[in-house]
Specification:
The structure is a homodimer. Chain A is built from 15 helices and 17 strands. By secondary structure, chain A is of the alpha/beta class. At the A-B interface, helix 2, helix 7, strand 12 and helix 13 of A face helix 2, helix 7, strand 12 and helix 13 of B.
Chain lengths: 427, 427
């Protein structure tokens, strides 16, 4: 029986889950995959954490050199997160001839060009299924199942924290601030929630997924990004009445005029399969020219679901020697000539607070008309003459820049107290 | 650039779609996968069909020997369906050293032990992603993503024809016979629909999927099977009122007491992600001990979606030389000692037509009680005293054999005109 040694860098939530899966299933993997997967080292400074998980003291390393020079280690699992020291450690492992399995979306997104070059040079595998959407097998689906398609679009709910927050706000009517606090208490959101709620985490994942889908490098810096901190319960409720659910969507499109990549909150029709992806569940909805629509759904985070993706990569790596790298020139920047569409098309939900006076509606609609925006729906709340009354417009598909222009003009009308919300509507 | 030659056996719906994908994307695959995928032969007796698709006359073969002896052919795509002559042709191709990609669920289900043995002997690849659930990447997910899990259960809507029929009956209130006729006209059902509507097709796929999921051979003959021909609009509507959708479910469970595999119509709660898988869409809902719940959703059939799965396998085969075979001893029969549970547990929907007379309810419930069945819900239609009035029971989880016994006893009561429906309820 082939013995395959692994080392785990970091015994945090995911590292701990991975350790548990590997050790508890060791006998099963001997039977099913004819390999003996042995955890030979863990890199963890909190020795007591490692001991509590059942790691033998002799296997606990406090520096990467121990692991790189251990001939028993074949595969290094990096689950530390963040760029440094993860990057230095992963490069060291690859240069020592170890294959690497990582869950680190930020590292892979920002430095895959460098990591991959090093992996190729050293004939090592570099696997990263766990970097996107936890246990949901989306990376391998793009690499090994849908690779014969031209992928036309990819719509994803790929951040668990924001989906948990938006679902709670939507179902319970609680405010963003309240739900965030609760999510932090439950461990669903970090003390500093910026990476999640401002959409950075989703842009890292979208960069990885859209590069694979479109066979060309999509740097995360090219992705339009807008977080969920401005979303109010009021708009969620208006949206509901109009048949929409609110989601932080990651969108990639590959059309005739170029590539469009963006992360922002969006209303989607309740009938769309993504609309019922709730709480910390995630999903990616992919449309290809042959496969038509495919949706992959599951737990986007968590110790064991993410551990499942890591162990899947480890077993694959241990039982295959042909590693596949990118299907495109994996450079830091986009390939010269790649066209990114910034002035993209979308429908829009626009809420203004306007004084309830005859004539204001005519002013607003004439602005829309001047900006080339067609209104699909309009709802005006009943209100007293003096107060600022919410008026909601849903537009037909229009250009982003036209909406930006219209919003500027709306702000200049004295009867409009506030342009209270602009939310894209995706169908 | 590596040139890889393929041959397509059969230019039916899926064969034609596959030919189209391969030829239209040829330049793209050179760029993305550094391979030149060339269709070197097609096996098709209807020469005009091949010519109409654009195949050069010199590439049209009328017997398998031409393809087996063509040194330019590396990979043979079998999309003929049925056992013979597909089986003979696939074995001939493998014995001639060609790798095989097949969409043939019946062939793979019934003879994978023989095909795989021949593939291993000849160091050839044998790929069958397209055999189950069209373009949905479920086989590779089980093999290469979720393989570190103990898969606990698998619930699938894996037959497009029956899902189309049940969705239409459910949404439009049309009868089974009417919808079947329409489906046949649209090409969604065959002239002889038996394989689909009686659940045979689903048992072939469940045999393949559950063998992979549970790492042990599950012959299709061990699968309990019940089709949809007895489902009435009346029961669908009662079910709807109770919050259920009707589906033909393929169920595999791997519990402490053994393995449970069955294909039958079932009510599932409308909130379940599978409940909104409609029309010819298919989905598989997998629960693993690490990954928790994962659902894979998409087109379960059709020329291009199935072609997408075939071409995915072809590209993988062309770019890898490590082929993986079964993770279990792939014999014809189940491994000795495998325990299959026949007296499985489920909740049940039972509709009887009873005379609306005092005392009949007491008789029924005492039968349930005697058989150890707990009733969860009861609905009795208002009706005249003399007529046979529908009375519906939904039970708590109980044993299949207890329900069979109760149904026999119910039939013997003179006040019961008919036990009109027994449908399992799955949650």
């Amino acid at each position: 029986m082939k013995k395959v040694g692994v080392a785990i860098l970091g015994l945090g939530v995911v590292g701990g889950g991975t350790y548990k899966i590997l050790t508890e299933h060791r006998e099963e993997y001997k039977r099913t995959h004819k390999i003996d997967l042995v955890v030979e080292n863990v890199l963890e400074l909190r020795k007591e954490r490692a001991l509590a998980l059942g790691v033998e003291e002799s296997k606990i390393a406090d520096n990467i050199a121990v692991i790189c020079s251990n001939p028993e280690v074949d595969i290094v699992i990096e689950v530390m997160g963040g760029v440094e020291p993860a990057k230095t450690f992963v490069l060291a492992a690859l240069n020592a001839g170890k294959s690497v399995v990582t869950s680190n979306k930020e590292l892979y997104c920002k430095y895959s060009h460098e990591l991959e070059k090093t992996a190729i040079k050293n004939h090592c595998g570099l696997f990263y299924e766990a970097s996107c959407v936890g246990g949901v097998p989306v990376i391998r689906a793009l690499l090994d199942n849908l690779q014969g398609n031209k992928i036309l679009s990819l719509l994803g709910i790929i951040n668990g924290t924001t989906n948990y927050i938006l679902t709670k706000m939507s179902h319970e009517g609680a405010s963003y601030a309240e739900v965030l606090k609760e999510a932090q208490k439950l461990g669903y959101a970090e003390a500093d929630p910026t990476a999640d709620v401002e959409g950075f985490d989703a842009t890292y994942k979208l960069s990885i997924l859209s590069s694979l889908a479109f066979h060309t490098k999509i740097p995360y810096t090219k992705i339009y990004r807008e977080g969920i901190t401005g979303i109010t319960v009021k708009d969620i409720q208006y949206g509901k009445q109009m048949g929409y659910a609110i989601k932080l969507l990651a969108i990639g499109k590959n059309g005739d005029n170029g590539i469009e990549v963006r992360v922002h909150p969006a209303f989607i029709p309740v009938e769309h399969p993504l609309a019922s992806v709730n709480d910390s569940y995630n999903a990616v909805y992919i449309t290809g020219d042959s496969v038509e629509d495919v949706m992959l759904y599951g737990r986007g985070a968590g110790a064991l679901p993410t551990g499942s993706a890591i162990v899947g990569d480890v077993i694959y790596c241990a039982t295959h020697s042909n590693y596949r790298y990118s299907t495109f020139e994996n450079t830091k920047d986009a390939a010269p000539g790649t066209k990114f569409i910034e002035n993209f098309e979308s429908a829009y939900y626009i809420r203004v607070n306007a004084s309830n006076r005859t004539g204001v509606l005519a002013k607003i609609t004439s602005i829309f008309s001047r900006c080339g925006i067609n209104v699909a729906k309009m709802v005006q709340e009943d209100g007293s003459d003096s107060a600022a009354v919410p008026v909601i417009f849903v537009t037909h598909k229009t250009k982003e820049h036209s909406v930006n222009k219209a919003v500027e003009e709306l702000k200049a009308i004295p009867e409009i107290a506030k342009v209270a919300a602009v939310i894209r509507v995706v169908s």
